[in-house]
Amino acid sequence: APEPIGDDSFLPTYLISRATRKHVTVVLSGDGGDELFAGYDKYRHFIAARRMRRWLRMPWNLLRSMPLGDRFKKSVEALALSEAEELARWLSALWKPSDLPALIPPAQTSGPDFFQQRWRARRGFPELERCLLTDMETYLEGDILPKVDRACMAVGLEVRSPLLDHQLVEETLRWACHAEIPGGGKAILKELLARHIPRRLFQRPKRGFGMPIQKWFRGALRPVLEKYAGAERLRRRGLINPLPVESAMRQHLSGKRNFGRKLFAIVAFEVWADGFFGEHTTLA
């Protein structure tokens, strides 16, 4: 059985693929560009957080316990992490590393996970470079590419990713400046693109394919959330401790925190598990 995908951008990717298939059968994708040329906002956040920790001596861990707004609380949580690996993992994860001991029984999380393995394999590399390479081997390979492949092939659309040509990747990684992000990410790609089209067509804020899942879970999809992330169901399934999920649901539905993407991953897993194993099947 194919593994489940907990990325909420799967549906928009499927919809745009379906619309595109009405006109063509093969398309080019820019997948890999963000990981190769530091295009994601999280890379700017990584650099900013590392600098702030060096410049400002503050009790960040103490601030985490204060009643803060969601956005500010997330910033403080990031700044409280002293190690580059911890911060990179925090910026890449839906359920944060500190959540996992309570969420998943320790017996299922023993030893370094794949993210940690790939990060630690790059000892001696600059911190930002380690972020890019780790994302290429984890997020890109394990989420982005399977998501795009399944969404496109579901409608018979072939996707080619020229930025992932191995010769291009190898050559780019030799450029000392490929990970620089003056004024944002993908500066090199933008300069190349400017030779062919007006800058006004691409000098705009980056926009992903995410859905407003946080609003939907508080509205029309609340029954779906409560059904698939309910305590009784999770307890019966046996893989996830329902208490942290209940807490996340409570905070999300009250509007105090935005845990939409966290909860979507739980819902997506349960929908997948129902389809392949049955609603009442215990998996652990």
Question: What structural keywords apply?
Answer:
284 residues; mainly alpha; two-stranded parallel sheet; 16 helices; 2 strands; 56% helix; globular
Structure description:
- The longest helix is centred in the middle third of the chain and has 27 residues, at 127-153.
- Strands 1-2 form a two-stranded parallel ribbon.
- It is mostly helical and 284 residues long.
- It has helices spanning 10-21, 33-37, 41-55, 60-63, 70-79, 84-92, 100-103, 114-120, 127-153, 166-172, 187-193, 213-218, 222-228, 231-237, 242-254, 260-277; strands at residues 26-28, 158-160.
- Helix content is 56%, strand content 2%.
- It starts with 9 loop residues before the first helix and ends in a 7-residue tail after the last helix.
Please render the helix and strand layout as text:
Elements: H1 10-21, E1 26-28, H2 33-37, H3 41-55, H4 60-63, H5 70-79, H6 84-92, H7 100-103, H8 114-120, H9 127-153, E2 158-160, H10 166-172, H11 187-193, H12 213-218, H13 222-228, H14 231-237, H15 242-254, H16 260-277
Parallel strand pairs: 1-2
Helix pairs in contact: 1-9, 3-6, 6-9, 8-9, 14-15, 15-16
State the gist of this model.
By secondary structure, this protein is mainly α. It is built from 16 helices and two strands.
Enumerate how many helices there are, as a single number.
16
Mean pLDDT over the full residue set = 88
Q: How many β strands by DSSP?
A: 2
- Please trace the helix and strand order, writing H or E for each element: HEHHHHHHHHEHHHHHHH
Shape: globular
Q: Strand order within the widest sheet?
A: 1-2
Q: Roughly how many Å is the radius of gyration?
A: 20 Å
Class inferred from helices and paired strands = mainly alpha
**How big a fraction of the residues is strand?**
under 5%
Provide the helix percentage. 55-70%
Taking the sheet with the most strands, its summary is: 2 strands, parallel
